Amino acid sequence: MAGGNSAYQLSPLAPGLYLVATPIGTARDITLRALDVLASADVLAAEDTRTLRHLMEIHGIPLGDRPLIACHDHNEAQVSPRVLQAIAAGKSVAYASEAGTPMVSDPGFPLARAVIAEGLTVTSAPGPSAAICALTVAGLPTDRFLFAGFAPSQKSARRSFLQELAPIASTLVLYESPKRINQILEDCCEILGEGRKMALCRELTKRFEEVIRGTVAEVRQVCAGRDLKGEIVLVIGRGEKAAADAATVEAALDRALASMTVKDAAAAVAEAFNLPRREVYQMALARGKA
């Protein structure tokens, strides 16, 4: 293994692509396994090679004579064949995002898909993720959540994006640029509702970490006029389940009964419309016999 007199002198890794999660702020948040992979891989690839070099220097991992390949949004399609060739030749390749977990609003998907398509090994050294970190500090339900990534920057597309998310009965997790935070908060007030619970998480794990909790309207008011900086994650609580008339519930039951048992269809529709399960079950029985 290349690497000199590192504290992480390990046995060679099996050939394959190793997706390495890296810290989103504090350098010590990296996992021991991630350090092992970075020390042992035959080839290193990174969204930002300077950031990975610096991280390895902090943790005493020499690059040695190993190749370090830049692989980001603008060149991933061109770089992937080189990585595939290395793995096919029996090499282990570690790929790291600039911060966080590869493929979670970061590069890595075309590369991983290409490796999988060739029947080669893809594995993960999991770790930091801004989305998961925000969920743990937001104070909102985590039993069911949807990660929606970045909202579109154009206003009309962003509003359509939020309208699609509005009826989803899950906690929503979004990334946003500080340059557009006031615009999206305004849209959230109008489309998701001013009273919906929210947490704005900024600079997570960094020196100036901040979490602003409250309703959408309250968070918007706190942020108004402020020049927010750094990475922002929005965690938005579930909306209230909409009331529905009998015709809407019956139509939903018919759709559910087309692919579910009476019991499962009734449970799903009762959950969707916040109705007593027993009542919906009786409706489902009647429609099943019709």
TrEMBL record:
One of its GO terms (molecular function) is rRNA (cytosine-2'-O-)-methyltransferase activity. GO terms for cellular component: cytoplasm. Pfam families: RsmI_C (PF23016), TP_methylase (PF00590). Keywords: Cytoplasm, Methyltransferase, rRNA processing, S-adenosyl-L-methionine, Transferase. Residues 17-219 form the Tetrapyrrole methylase domain. Its EC number is 2.1.1.198. It comes from the Bacteria. Coiled coil: none annotated. Gene3D superfamilies: Cobalt-precorrin-4 Transmethylase, Domain 1, Methyltransferase, Cobalt-precorrin-4 Transmethylase, Domain 2. InterPro entries: 4pyrrol_Mease, 4pyrrol_Methylase_sf, 4pyrrole_Mease_sub1, 4pyrrole_Mease_sub2, rRNA_ssu_MeTfrase_I, RsmI_HTH. Residues 243-287 form the RsmI HTH domain. It is found in: Cytoplasm. It is an enzyme of class 2 (transferase). It catalyses: cytidine(1402) in 16S rRNA + S-adenosyl-L-methionine = 2'-O-methylcytidine(1402) in 16S rRNA + S-adenosyl-L-homocysteine + H(+). The keyword Transferase applies. Catalyzes the 2'-O-methylation of the ribose of cytidine 1402 (C1402) in 16S rRNA. NCBIfam families: 16S rRNA (cytidine(1402)-2'-O)-methyltransferase. HAMAP family: 16SrRNA_methyltr_I. Belongs to the methyltransferase superfamily. RsmI family. This is Ribosomal RNA small subunit methyltransferase I. It comes from Tabrizicola oligotrophica.
